Every structure is written in structure tokens, then in C-alpha cells.
Amino acid sequence: MSFRHFVFPPKETVSLSIFESEQKFPINRIYCVGRNYAEHSREMGDDPERDPPFFFCKDVSSVFEIPFSSDSSSVPYPAETNRYEYEVELVVALSKGGFNISKTDAMDCVFGYSVGLDMTRRDLQSQAKKKGRPWEVGKSFELSAPLTPIKTIQQVGVLDHGAIELRVDGVLKQKSDLSNLTWSIAEVISHLSRLFELHPGDLIMTGTPENVGPVKVGETMQASIEGLGRFELTVV
Question: Which residues contact 169 (CB under 8 A, 6 or more apart)?
């Protein structure tokens, strides 16, 4: 179908680079797993033994790509918030989908991984939670999902353990291990596929460790996942 069939030109497909490849990964939907590390669940007021992780979505307009590098990229401090918070996460990219995917078959859907941040306007999210309203204003705003290029599972193997960290101006703020995920990647994919039909191009942000916190203009975040890579991002 040509552009003349639309009332205005549609947006280009949002995509991520694939590490050491000229190809791009087209993004379909972005699923986020809430409170998938036990200590983060506790710090947010939940009991991980009784309250399982849950899911929400970010819009693809949230995505912007950050290179694997020791050089810092930048992101503007967002509007209408006084508490802009970091959440470092392993992001899983799917090349297959479907309904009711078994745990046994789930990892066959994984194309690769990215290092990501689920940036959050925490004050707006908290206000929405208190009133029983959706979280989009706190979670799904522009530039709230900085992500690295994708490294394929053939390049890095299955990431089921390894340090995940976030520092601000060199000071360690978040630290855990991927083995501490409450729900494994296979379990997340299987459960999500019972709620939604998954598709190639879907991204899953798998949850953040404890000690989320605010970042201010002029501060630089350093996010890293062992076996995958790191990036730096300065708030301007």
C-alpha cells in the first residue's frame, strides 16, 4: 500500500541495531515485567512470596538507541516530574511468537538481548497508583526506554546469570545477578503468551533489581550487564 492511501505519511518503523550486523531489528510491542527481583518487590511494598510479578507496556515511541560505549550519550530531563528514576534491566528480543508457548519451547523464541533502562517519572506513577489509574504517564513517555543494540543469542549465549549493575557518577546504586530473577526468561515468555499473542519484534523488559532512585540534570548513569555490555547516559 502506497503513502497516497493514508491521510498523512505513517511513521517509520522503530528499530534497534543488531550488534556487528547491517540488519535492523523492527520493534513490535514492548512488554515490561513489574517487580521481578524479590528485593525490589519488597522495597516497593510487595511480598514476592505472595504477589507474583505483573506486566505493563511501553509505547515504541519510548525507545531510543544508546551505543555500547564508555562515551556518554544524553537524554533530556522529562517534563512534569520532580522525581526521574532509573531502573536497569535485561531486555529480551523475540524473533518468534505465538499463544500458549510452553516453558520448554520459550527460549526458541529469543533472538537476543539488550541492556536497557526503564526510566520512570516516579512521582506521576505514584499519584496514578494512589488513584487506581493507569501508569502510562509515569512509564510510557517519550525517551523513557534507552536501549543498546541487540546482541544475538548466538553471540552471547543464554543469559541466565551474570551481574547487572547501575552506577550514577561512578557510585554503585543497583547491583544484582540475573540468576535472581523471580521468574526466569522462559517463564516470563510462557506466561505472557497466555495473556497476549506474542510476535516477532516484541521486546520484554525483564524487571529491575532493588535500589531504584532519582537522577538529576548533569548526572551520568552507567548501566551494565555481565556478558552483554555497558553504556553511559547523561541527563541534560
Answer: 219, 220
- Alpha carbons 27 and 93: distance in angstroms, whole number: 9
In eight-state DSSP terms, residue 201 is: T
Write the pLDDT tens digit of every residue in 107-122: 999 999 999 999 999 9
Among candidates 172, 194, 7, which has minimal Cα distance to 102? 194
Task: Let me know if 227 is exposed, middle or buried by CB neighbors in 10 A (0-12, 13-18, 19+).
Answer: middle
Locate cell 547487572: which residue?
164
CA atoms within 13 A on the CB side of 139: 22
CA dist., res. 211 & res. 169, Å (int): 16
Give me the amino acid identity at 148: T
pLDDT reported for residue 42: 61
Whether 111 contacts 201, CB under 8 Å? no
Give residue-wise pLDDT tens across range 136-157: 999 999 999 999 999 999 999 9
Amino acid identity at 40: H
- Provide the residue type at 196 as one letter: F
